[in-house]
């Protein structure tokens, strides 16, 4: 069968494809974006994208230049993203939850010529270390980006004659070394995900209103909010919600039909239901991704709101979800079955397929696979062969073809949907004057609870474990790390087990539990 | 709005206890300390504060946090919630 990407013309610009198809479907006066008290129709969205492209031309930007977009989920992010792609310029959305050091690194690594950000972020970044950056635009302040767009004449800007298989945008993903990696995606990638997941799996349609707690610089959020709704001409909500109470208020206000959450958000919404009851009556579909959803949360959500949560899993490298529980046939505690268009396999260490119930390495093939990591040849070669990627996840599948997450090949794990490297936390705790050695491990009661960070600590000679010292260590970490990475629990041990080569033996620590 | 008889004297102390339980050092906690800007609290910790207030004071405080809040501002919300709960016909939700 001809693939989705092969059905696209060789000369293909994905911004033009989504904009023109959404307007052609007699959709032009329908709402594309809800943002605070404002709405933008597809016609207005198209105008603002053209104007953003005009602004980029005025700055002298050229095809294949990079534009870094460090903004919360706002219309300006949407306009800048599509405006850049329209011209063949590469937008690089950056998550505003990144640290200053990470943003400085991404600006340098991507060699972005233009940065679009906020006054707050500009102040935090000063001075910007990247020698490649030539221009800055601010969303707020004296000359906001939106007013600049409004001042542009409504002149059609010809779209760049890009190819379907040339780079269109980058997303940065955190890496095991602590340095984010630029994931290069092609013009065809968003179409593939929209067809395979939004249309075939979720049955997204033009009457839907989507609401995503994951922001657009995350691959999950980019699909949920930016291109999947456009692919079917539906509306989406751009939100600055930062906790469960904000989300409850947003759902009350906008009445979304499809909710894209992550496990910790579902847990928080359930925890506050007596304080801030959620009106879930508008929702026809709830989705979870980014990390394993504990079965207990799935069941509690079902009992409370009479809704399944369609859990799935994807990666930044595949752009969106490739394993998903089908609506009406969810199997809680699993990541579901392969999304159409993806071949998902569990292989043993010699590369042979595992039988049902055997734990092996998850490898995935599909058309939305990245071109590679920017300037990371070794990591790219390690991850990819052909259209297949080694995800680094351990999985098994059952007789019904449902895949279940069983851990990682490396030491990384996820908390609040974000990657955590144990070494980063261990490095901080090693600085504590009473700590001799430390190992960080994730604990989730075999997937029954959300993952929490646990520190196993041995103390220097003469130091004594105590509840006060446990509190002190947690505070010490919290003052030096993003709070979600700080250990929730400290367990004191005499010695940490080590491998014959002297490394901390994490699997042996897991057996302590 | 009169708060005279309904203002608990312990809302700031309760808030401080909840925050120290979350692993925030007590010396960082002052009336004008900002939850996000100064303490870098994340979304789960904000929910923990609200659950702690429910558990310890019996009040339902929705800590919507699109705008950062100081400890004093949180206390005002606690006191408003206590007032509303003790005066259910007053019309303050």
From TrEMBL, chain A:
<dbReference type="InterPro" id="IPR025110">
    <property type="entry name" value="AMP-bd_C"/>
</dbReference>
<dbReference type="GO" id="GO:0005524">
    <property type="term" value="F:ATP binding"/>
</dbReference>
<feature type="domain" description="AMP-binding enzyme C-terminal">
    <location>
        <begin position="424"/>
        <end position="503"/>
    </location>
</feature>
<dbReference type="InterPro" id="IPR000873">
    <property type="entry name" value="AMP-dep_synth/lig_dom"/>
</dbReference>
<keyword id="KW-0436">Ligase</keyword>
<dbReference type="GO" id="GO:0016405">
    <property type="term" value="F:CoA-ligase activity"/>
</dbReference>
<protein>
    <submittedName>
        <fullName>Benzoate-CoA ligase family protein</fullName>
    </submittedName>
</protein>
<dbReference type="GO" id="GO:0016878">
    <property type="term" value="F:acid-thiol ligase activity"/>
</dbReference>
<dbReference type="Pfam" id="PF13193">
    <property type="entry name" value="AMP-binding_C"/>
</dbReference>
<feature type="domain" description="AMP-dependent synthetase/ligase">
    <location>
        <begin position="24"/>
        <end position="374"/>
    </location>
</feature>
<dbReference type="InterPro" id="IPR045851">
    <property type="entry name" value="AMP-bd_C_sf"/>
</dbReference>
<dbReference type="Pfam" id="PF00501">
    <property type="entry name" value="AMP-binding"/>
</dbReference>
<dbReference type="InterPro" id="IPR011957">
    <property type="entry name" value="Benz_CoA_lig"/>
</dbReference>
<dbReference type="GO" id="GO:0044550">
    <property type="term" value="P:secondary metabolite biosynthetic process"/>
</dbReference>
UniProtKB/TrEMBL annotation, chain B:
<protein>
    <submittedName>
        <fullName>Acyl carrier protein</fullName>
    </submittedName>
</protein>
<dbReference type="InterPro" id="IPR036736">
    <property type="entry name" value="ACP-like_sf"/>
</dbReference>
């Amino acid at each position: 069968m001809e693939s989705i990407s092969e059905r696209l013309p060789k000369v293909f610009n994905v911004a033009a494809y989504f904009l023109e198809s959404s307007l052609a479907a007699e959709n032009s006066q329908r709402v594309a974006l809800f943002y605070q008290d404002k709405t933008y129709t597809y016609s207005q969205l198209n105008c603002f994208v053209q104007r953003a492209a005009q602004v980029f031309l005025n700055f002298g930007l050229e095809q294949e230049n990079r534009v870094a977009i460090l903004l919360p989920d706002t219309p300006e992010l949407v306009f800048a993203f599509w405006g850049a792609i329209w011209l063949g310029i590469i937008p690089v959305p950056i998550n505003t939850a990144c640290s200053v050091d990470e943003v400085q690194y991404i600006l340098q690594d991507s060699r972005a010529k233009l940065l679009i950000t906020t006054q707050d972020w500009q102040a935090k970044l000063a001075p910007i270390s990247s020698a490649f950056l030539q221009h800055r635009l601010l969303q707020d302040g004296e000359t906001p980006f939106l007013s600049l767009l409004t001042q542009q004449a409504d002149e059609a800007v010809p779209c760049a004659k890009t190819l379907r298989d040339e780079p269109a945008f980058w997303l940065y993903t955190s890496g095991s070394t602590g340095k984010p990696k630029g994931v290069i995606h092609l013009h065809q990638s968003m179409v593939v995900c929209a067809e395979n997941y939004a249309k075939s799996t979720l049955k997204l349609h033009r009457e839907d209103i989507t609401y995503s707690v994951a922001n657009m610089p995350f691959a999950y959020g980019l699909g949920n909010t930016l291109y999947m709704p456009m692919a079917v001409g539906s509306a989406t909500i751009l939100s600055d919600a930062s906790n469960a109470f904000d989300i409850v208020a947003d759902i009350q206000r906008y009445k979304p039909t499809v909710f894209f959450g992550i496990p910790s958000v579902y847990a928080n919404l359930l925890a506050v239901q007596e304080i801030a009851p959620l009106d879930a009556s508008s929702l026809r579909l709830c989705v979870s991704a980014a990390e394993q959803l504990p079965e207990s949360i799935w069941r509690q959500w079902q009992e409370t709101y009479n809704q399944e949560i369609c859990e799935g899993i994807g990666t930044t490298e595949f752009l969106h979800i490739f394993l998903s529980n089908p609506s009406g046939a969810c199997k809680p505690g699993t990541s579901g079955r392969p999304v159409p268009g993806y071949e998902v396999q569990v292989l043993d260490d010699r590369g042979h397929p595992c039988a049902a119930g055997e734990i092996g390495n998850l490898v995935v093939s599909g058309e939305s696979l990245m071109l590679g990591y920017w300037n990371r040849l070794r990591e790219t070669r390690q991850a990819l062969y052909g259209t297949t990627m080694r995800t680094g996840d351990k999985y098994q599948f059952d007789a019904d073809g449902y895949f279940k997450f069983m851990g990682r090949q490396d030491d990384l794990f996820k908390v609040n949907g974000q990657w955590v490297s144990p070494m980063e936390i261990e490095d901080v705790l090693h600085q504590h004057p009473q700590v001799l050695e430390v190992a960080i491990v994730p604990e989730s009661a075999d997937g029954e609870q959300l993952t929490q960070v646990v520190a196993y600590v041995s103390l220097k000679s003469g130091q004594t474990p105590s509840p006060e010292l446990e509190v002190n260590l947690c505070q010490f970490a919290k003052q030096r790390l993003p709070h979600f990475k700080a250990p929730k629990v400290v367990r004191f041990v005499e010695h940490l087990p080590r491998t014959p080569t002297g490394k901390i033996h994490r699997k042996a620590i897991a057996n302590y539990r | 709005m009169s708060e005279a008889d309904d203002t608990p004297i312990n809302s700031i102390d309760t808030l401080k206890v909840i925050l120290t339980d979350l692993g925030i050092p007590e010396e960082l906690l002052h009336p004008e300390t900002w939850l996000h800007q100064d303490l870098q609290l994340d979304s789960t910790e904000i929910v923990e504060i609200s659950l702690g207030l429910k558990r310890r004071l019996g009040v339902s405080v929705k800590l919507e946090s699109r705008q950062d809040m100081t400890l004093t501002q949180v206390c005002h919300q606690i006191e408003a919630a206590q007032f509303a709960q003790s005066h259910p016909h007053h019309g303050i939700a």
